[in-house]
Amino acid sequence: MTAPAIEHRPTATAKILGVFLAGAAVSVLLGVYGDTHTPTGEQPYNLFFTATIQLKVWFATAAVALALLQVLLAMRLYGKLNWPRTTPSWLGDAHRLCGTLAFLVTLPVAYQCLWALGFQSTPTRVLVHSLAGCLFYGAFVAKVLSVRVSGLPGWSLPIVGGIVFTALVVVFLTSSVWFVTDGPAGLPIF
Amino acid sequence: MTSDFTTPKRTTFGRIVNGIEVIAVIAGLVWVFMLFANDPGTGGVADAGKPGAAIFASNCAKCHGADGAGLIGPQLAGTVVDRYPDVADQIAVVTLGRKGMPSFDGVLSEGQIQQVVEYTRTGLGG
């Protein structure tokens, strides 16, 4: 006679802990890479911009605009906004698209940051920018996992999504906004 | 409350978004690969033998680029002489700072500032 098999399913707490640990690991790894990698000080690409910094400012702006739109769509999906009155069937897909495109446009920006500049701790603006940049990708991974892993508490996705958005806005404020308002080169017109 | 925004019935738009998500995953993996695989380049300072080159490498290159082509800070190579025909004006900017440019007063000596300024005007192809 064999004992009945006991199925051990991870609890919601274990799942959310796993999601947060995965995100934290990504953030830490990016920070370690940025700190240990010798910055090249090069401009790896400009695309159709006059310099990499112009590309970064505009791409970061596009990422924040897309992320803002994604937050608005999420608020409608969660019923926090009542417009449009009926939820179109494509709203969820539009939400996913905005987030995916926002992530894609951050990649060339973050690549140049990590590869050419690295993690810097001075001045304070740059330290905050470096930390928020690492946090953004960790939180992004946690958010994607939160969507994919079933059985998580309902509060987890809005919290993680909020962290992703906040980190991106901090990155934007300490780079693009700083560059335009207080940077050495003024408004980057392509 | 569900944590999944995907619609149960997959539309053409939904399939397109799925495809873009796959592209994003691949792009993310390529991004990580490039961070480690891409040659870091020479990273060297142009005309490293000239006086001021080492000062430039440790204090200026992280914003203006190792070759002075510009990064966060503007391009210096080939432009500073036109921008500052009078060398004293450039020395003043380095010493006192200006907008995003930090002040190097107290960080570099007067002689070092003169050396690095001279280097940006000649060693970088001023």
Tell how many strands the DSSP assignment of chain A holds: 0
Any idea how many domains of chain A? 1
Oligomer: heterodimer
Q: In angstroms, what is the radius of gyration of chain B?
A: 23 Å
Give the % helix of chain B. Answer: 40-55%
Please give the CATH class of the largest domain in chain B: Mainly Alpha
Number of structurally distinct domains of chain B? 2
Order of helices and strands of chain B: HHHHHH
Q: Please mark out the parts of chain B with pLDDT under 50 across 5 or more consecutive residues, or reply none.
A: none
Number of strands of chain B: 0
| Average pLDDT number of chain B | 82
CATH topology of the largest domain in chain B: Cytochrome Bc1 Complex, Chain D, domain 2
Account of the protein in words:
Chain A is mostly helical and about 190 residues long. Chain A has one domain (about 50-180). In chain A, about 70% of the residues lie in helices and about 0% in strands. Chain A contains 5 helices and no strands. In chain A, helix 2 (about 50-75) runs antiparallel to helix 3. Chain A is globular. The mean pLDDT of chain A is about 90. Chain B is an all-alpha fold and about 130 residues long. Chain B has 2 domains: about 1-40; about 55-125, Cytochrome Bc1 Complex, Chain D, domain 2 (Orthogonal Bundle). In chain B, about 50% of the residues lie in helices and about 0% in strands. Chain B has helices spanning about 10-35, 55-60, 60-65, 80-85, 85-95, 110-125. In chain B, helix 5 (about 85-95) crosses helix 6. Chain B starts with 11 loop residues before the first helix and ends with a helix. At the A-B interface, helix 2, helix 3 and helix 5 of A face helix 1 and helix 3 of B.
